[in-house]
Design brief:
It contains no helices and eight strands. By secondary structure, the protein is mainly β. The N and C termini lie far apart (41 Å).
């Protein structure tokens, strides 16, 4: 099932505190996003649906709280697929001046 989700990124280079990312299940099987892990309390995710049928999409909204951040930062969230070792890592970089 490797590579079964296509991530459609938003337009690059924009400043944000929230960003929406569309993911599409490109596999022949339904997948279920079981959990997510963030490397920082400052980055959270909300997904419109956790079960994604073949060729269906779901929207993930990432929210970055920049209050305690300074300088250049790279943050990540790992989406874990239920009943597999499959996971997808999303990175966000920002520079706070």
């Amino acid at each position: 099932m490797s590579g079964s989700i296509k991530i459609v990124p938003p337009y690059g280079g924009c400043a944000f505190d929230k960003v929406e990312i569309i993911i599409k299940n490109k596999s022949l099987e339904r997948i279920e996003i079981d959990t997510y892990e963030s490397d920082c309390d400052c980055l959270t995710a909300a997904i419109t649906k956790s079960v994604i049928a073949p060729n269906e999409t779901a929207k993930i909204t990432l929210t970055l709280t920049t209050k305690s951040l300074t300088g250049f930062n790279v943050k990540s969230i790992i989406l874990k697929v239920k009943n597999t070792k499959e996971e997808f890592k999303l990175y966000i970089s920002t520079e706070i001046k």
